[in-house]
Structures are given as C-alpha cells and as structure tokens.
From TrEMBL:
EC number(s) reported in the record: 2.3.1.178
Protein name, UniProt field: L-2,4-diaminobutyric acid acetyltransferase
Keyword terms of this UniProt record: Acyltransferase, Transferase
Renumbered residue ranges of the record's region Disordered: 1-27
PROSITE patterns assigned to the protein according to its UniProt record, in alphabetical order: GNAT (PS51186)
BP terms from Gene Ontology: ectoine biosynthetic process
Gene that specifies this protein: ectA
Organism expressing this protein natively: Pseudohongiella spirulinae
InterPro entries per the UniProt record, alphabetical: Acyl_CoA_acyltransferase, Ectoine_EctA, GNAT_dom
Molecular function (Gene Ontology), one example: diaminobutyrate acetyltransferase activity
Alphabetical list of Pfam families matching this protein: Acetyltransf_1 (PF00583)
Superkingdom classification of source: Bacteria
Length: 180
C-alpha cells in the first residue's frame, strides 16, 4: 500500500531551485529510486531489480534529482526500439518536500536535452483517469512545447490488467522540433 502524504505547506519547503542537482542515474541509485517510488501515490511498486536495471540500461534517458544526500526526484524513461522518435516516460516521482516547484518539469526537460534524445519528437506516457497531478504535468509539457496531446487506451482494465488495475491511457505529446 502507498503511504502518500500531503505536501507540506509552501513555507515549510526548502528552496529547491538552489539545493537540487539533476544527473543521470547509476546502479547505486536503484535502491533510493525504489524507496521514492514506494512512497509515491499512484505509482506501481516494482522490484528493486527492475530499478537497478533501469538505472543501468536506461540511464541516458532517465534522471534523478538529489538534495544533499537525499534523492528527491526521478524520471524513468526509454526510447522504444520500434519508435526511435519517441521518449516513453515510464514513472515520474517527486518527494512531497519538493513538489509543485517545477522539479518534474525540469527533469523532463533535462532528459529531452540529452544527446540520446536528439531524434525525439514525441513524448509518450500512460496515466490513469484520476491522476490529476500527472495529467497536469504532461499538459504543461505540451503547452511549453506548443504541442497537441493525443489520448487513447494503451492498457485496458479488463483486457490487459485482468481487472487488477485501472485502465492506463496513453498520452502522445508532439511533434517537437527536432534538436539541431
Ligand atoms: C506528478 C508529480 C511528479 C509532479 O511533480 P512536481 O515537481 O510537483 O510537478 P511540477 O511542479 O513540475 O508541476 C508541473 C505542472 O503540473 C502541475 N501540478 C503539479 N502537481 C499538481 C497537482 N497535485 N494538481 C494539479 N496540478 C499539479 C503544476 O501546476 C505544473 O503546471 P504548470 O506548469 O502549468 O504550472 C508529483 O506530484 C508526484 O510525484 N506525484 C506522485 C507520483 C505520480 O503521480 N507520478 C506521475 C505518474 S508516472
């Protein structure tokens, strides 16, 4: 079960703009990423091995955010082999202490600016109907990039999840202008 708590009041939060560093993950980030995912609302908790593999094999298309010794944000993403123009964003999590200060948006930008994303013209992700924060975050990305969002069912509650999980809707955002 997730143990999500309300974000603290604004005045209690650190100045994340000054204190937060972004970088590509390494294998030693796997365990802290797993911990952050486990305490985030809405996100499926996968095995530690899964996050070790992501931090190792998809490091160039993922990002972690640290504040001192603490990992406070992560975006895991990859370029699907059959879609070299698309970044598929798998999970995004920001610790409650750093939410609503633009960190998720900065992390998405960080990945899109990496060399490995030069051919990326679309961002895809999946969201459930009720994840307002996630929908707002991707709507904001589309607005900033002046792009449309197409929405369709990707993994259906009955057909794919055997009624164990809500339907995941695919958001396809783009096309972006390709980097020079
Ligand atoms: C979704 C999440 C990653 C957003 O992180 P964040 O750093 O607070 O997001 P940002 O500050 O960059 O905000 C991005 C946009 O989303 C909006 N937003 C963020 N949280 C919101 C919320 N709870 N409700 C409505 N809008 C929200 C912001 O206003 C901003 O829009 P704007 O650019 O038009 O002002 C964070 O709330 C989280 O970790 N949630 C739990 C896990 C999750 O749902 N992950 C997404 C699915 S993979």
């Amino acid at each position: 079960m997730n143990t999500f708590q309300e974000a603290p009041a604004l005045q209690e939060r650190p100045d994340t703009n000054q204190d937060i560093q972004l970088r590509s993950p390494t294998a030693t980030d796997g365990a802290p990423v797993h911990n952050l995912i486990r305490k985030s609302a809405f996100l499926d908790d996968n095995s530690l091995y899964c996050y070790l593999a992501i931090c190792t094999h998809f490091s160039k298309t993922s990002v972690v955010a640290t504040m001192g010794d603490d990992l406070v944000g992560v975006v895991t993403a990859y370029i699907p082999p059959e879609q070299p123009d698309t970044l598929f964003v798998w999970q995004v999590a920001v610790d409650t202490v750093a939410q609503k200060r633009g960190l998720a948006s900065k992390m998405l930008n960080y990945i899109l600016e990496q060399n490995g994303c030069k051919s990326v013209q679309y961002v895809e992700t999946t969201v459930t109907k009720d994840n307002d924060a996630s929908r707002a975050m991707f709507a904001s990305l589309a607005r900033r990039r002046n792009c449309n969002i197409d929405e369709s069912v990707m993994f259906d509650r009955e057909e794919h999840f055997l009624n164990l999980h809500d339907t995941e809707y695919k958001l396809r955002i783009g096309p972006f202008a390709a980097a020079e």
